[in-house]
Amino acid sequence: VVDADDLIDEVIQKAKENTKERGQLDGMSKNEIDALCEIIALGGLKYYLLKVDPKKRMLFNPQESIELNGNTGPFIQYCYARIKSVLNKAGNIGGFEETEINASEKEIIKQISNFPQIIIEAAKNYSPALVVNYLFELVKLYNSYYQTYYILSEEVDSIKNFRLALSKTVADILEKGMHLLGAEVPEKM
């Protein structure tokens, strides 16, 4: 039997160690670091526990729950923080009338359109794992897109604005989905 407070403390400590190793704490105060690590740790813990169908057994691995890669809360949180960084650098999003979209954008739009139905199915089946798996698939699609196409450095304004709007929509869904799971998403990581 594991005490919940001890488990939470352990996951927060591991999140601090991982974040320090990646060198992403420069310029942050101790309070900011503590708050960020708590968001990462609790988000990772909740996500990890909820990604398994409630009818199945699982073996919990604290270190795995806060990994930045794979089907983890921090993976979702990092994607959200990356998008927020792009949006902050961009400022206002302009118009994008009659912009042609590519195959990756179509796949992301299809995934976005499934969000309401996923919420309904998750509620009907008492299975937050459906939301977790949906968010993971959305982030995989977006990360592939992000690595393939220019967003901020796109020269055609209508394409750039469309990509920014698409990114904002993905971020909004990630935030809502994680909120439904009881987890927060940090603005920066």
How many angstroms does the end-to-end distance come to?
32 Å
**Based on helices, strands and strand pairing, what is the structural class?**
mainly alpha
**Radius of gyration over C-alpha positions, nearest whole angstrom:** 18 Å
Low-pLDDT segments, ≥5 res: none
Characterise this structure.
With 189 residues, the protein is mostly helical. It has eight helices and no strands. The protein has helices at 4-22, 30-50, 62-65, 73-90, 103-113, 115-124, 129-148, 157-180. It is globular, with a radius of gyration of 18 Å. The chain starts with a helix and ends in a 9-residue tail after the last helix. The model has no long low-confidence stretch (mean pLDDT 89).
Could you provide a short overview of the structure?
67% of the residues lie in helices and 0% in strands.
Describe how the helices and strands are arranged.
Blueprint: H1 4-22, H2 30-50, H3 62-65, H4 73-90, H5 103-113, H6 115-124, H7 129-148, H8 157-180
Keywords, separated by commas or semicolons:
globular; 189 residues; mainly alpha; single chain
